[in-house]
Amino acid sequence: MKKILTLLLSAGLMTTAMQAVSSPQEDLEKFRLYYEQRFPGIQLDDFGNGPYALDANKRMQWESMEEFPPYEEYVDKGREIWETPFKNGKSFASCFGEDPSKVRVKYPRWDSKTQQVVTLEGDINKCLKDNGEKPFGWKKGKIAHLGAFLGYEARGQKINVVIPDDPKALEAYEEGKHFYYAKRGQLNLACADCHVQYPGQRVRGQMLSTGLGQTTHFPVFRAKWEKASPDGDGMGTLHRRYGGCNKQVRARPFKAQSRQYRNLEFFHTYMSNGLEINAPGYRE
Fold first, then answer.
1. For this structure, is 194 an active site residue?
2. Are 130 and 196 in a shared domain?
């Protein structure tokens, strides 16, 4: 618990170890202020560019990559998935509305009926099941391709996750917050160790990004995933990345779309409220 309190203090989410639980809005203001003070030369939306906002040389390489981005073909595949009718004649537009640019910005969201956090991937597979189609896998492949298309269509819109004044919603938010700051695994590390305490520093040759802005660009194309894929498909969802991070600290990962990861996404994305969506992204 002492370690968690130290990380909360470093991000400005608590002022003393004995302070009462703060509201989500207070958390958001302190979280943002912490990074703005630590990296005063970076504009708010630039935090969504991860390590490329922190290092000039890496930014030049990234900008060159963005001229012919490797995720482009998967955006096109996602567009084809969106436009292809189901066997019953309906399509994803029947579930999400005709305008694909209005979809991504709605997630994650709190569902008052089911009393749980709902993600974009969760509603994609719900749409498939409701229309008699086989659901996609949760971490890569078609679900990431469709997410890449919907993210691309939503570029420039601001993240606006709503935490309703509902005890269960606040409980889910707090569980996600605790997950972010809790130590785990054989290496005894939290998400916040890398992304609150040490952003800008390197681990195994890779620069650590800030917690602010991390969810703006998912799904992402990772060079690491491309190399490991038989067909060179490097796209992956946010929950794929969560699982990978857990494995890297030698902790047993939760299943993609588990309650734990959905609640983490709820907190994690809320902490980037006000930043522009810039999905899909490219990462090493």
1. no
2. no
